[in-house]
Specification:
- The structure is a homodimer.
- Chain A is mostly helical.
- Chain A contains 9 helices and no strands.
- The longest helix of chain A is centred in the middle third of the chain and has 28 residues.
- The radius of gyration of chain A is 19 Å and the shape is elongated.
- The relative contact order of chain A is 0.10.
- Chains A and B meet through α6, α7, α8 and α9 of A and α6, α7, α8 and α9 of B.
Chain lengths: ~190, ~190
């Protein structure tokens, strides 16, 4: 019985993602997922309180690895590897457009914002900061380095392209951003 | 007669913003704006094809200055001044939460995305790049400097905080970001 319920949960989440890709997040509804999955909508509402919650769980089920950081002992190489992996995930269907839709809804639905933060944003931030802290303990990063600020500077240009200018995220773009961030802008500006 | 129509347009946009602040963008509807403004909904639809289009025009009517760049001859000081002004606009009601809602809808509504890009994002980008180009012509920026990349690096950390972590945008944060971007990360990482 429990097995059957777990199967059904997986089937509902898979249907949610399929339908989300077909008709887009805006038009997706719990009723439509229920009809396609062949379950009653109350079966869905028993487990998920809203379309946003169902969609978030469905998306997270695609991201089992959770974008873990490698630890080769070289923090710069490991940052690059992890950001490349993030770009591979966010830059392509199905994850890419679906996460965009969810981040979009989070901008005006506080419940979706809270769930997205708790399930995706905060854990990823914690992983980045933990990896940077290990590097700092190993003497690879100076003690006064502000890790939260580093997080914003490393991630911001990617989100800018992902959410604002909607250009393709590529490894080459990541490498150009990292190079500029490491070198700094000062050399380019007359003082 | 023309005057009266212009008055009505202003009244509809003002009502849209008032109602948007009261009930949030998600619950806003053209019907509700029409009822509050005392006009028929066809009057609104004659001018605006969707809620997103109406909302975008209403928001843009608040931002008459269009976040123009000063030109004191000092590019670094002018960048700082302009980003402070952007933070003052985006970090506070009414513009802040309302733009967030619109950027949110743009993530899954291509029409809203296109309108937002055309009316807000692209013109602001063009202003930034034009100001950087003037500085380059005046010898304040090195010739090989990638201005589009600079735009992403300067804006990204602000959008990250605005859209992803939802922390307050402040002048102090802008100054910390600019300092880190100018100095570069290399000094903080052991090579």
């Amino acid at each position: 019985m429990r097995e059957k319920s777990a199967d059904r949960t997986v089937a509902i989440m898979r249907t949610t993602l399929e339908l989300g890709q077909e008709i887009g997040y805006a038009k997706l509804s719990i009723e439509a997922v229920a009809a396609r999955a062949g379950v009653g909508k109350h079966t869905i509402y028993r487990r998920w309180s809203s379309k946003g919650a169902l969609f978030l769980d469905s998306l997270m089920s695609l991201n089992e690895s959770g974008l873990d950081y490698p630890d080769t002992g070289d923090i710069v190489a490991d940052l690059r590897t992890q950001i490349h992996a993030a770009v591979d995930l966010l830059g392509r269907p199905p994850f890419g457009p679906l996460v965009r839709a969810l981040v979009g809804e989070a901008q005006y639905d506080p419940q979706v914002a809270a769930a997205l933060s708790e399930r995706f944003i905060a854990p990823q931030e914690a992983k980045t900061v933990a990896r940077l802290e290990r590097a700092r303990e190993q003497g690879q990063i100076s003690p006064d380095f502000d890790l939260d600020l580093a997080m914003a500077i490393l991630s911001g240009p990617l989100y800018f392209r992902y959410l604002i200018t909607n250009e393709q995220l590529t490894h080459a773009y990541v490498d150009r951003v990292l190079e500029a961030l490491f070198a700094g802008l000062r050399g380019h500006f007359a003082s």
